[in-house]
Known about the structure:
Helix 1 (2-24) crosses helix 2. This protein is mainly alpha-helical. It is 53% helix and 0% strand. The radius of gyration is 19 Å and the shape is elongated. The longest helix is centred in the first third of the chain and has 23 residues, at 2-24. It has a domain at 2-24 and 33-52.
Amino acid sequence: MQWCFIALCVLVINAILLYWVGRLLQPNFMVDSFGAAFWGSLVISLVSLVLNSLTKSGDSRFQFRRGKPPPPRPPKDDGGPIIDV
């Protein structure tokens, strides 16, 4: 249920940003209302999700797992300097 709240918050933030861009670029780009910005952010999010899934770009992947979480992965050793304080 927590992911649903997070997804709604992301959509609202995207809608606010889209609405503000519409205000900043008034003659060239116009958003009528916050409702239109919300639906626009929903469409943009869905198109982005589909395109990222098809092209395998981006780091976000959806995985639904039940049961115990997997053990944490050890940090990658890239051979760089280690600073220990």
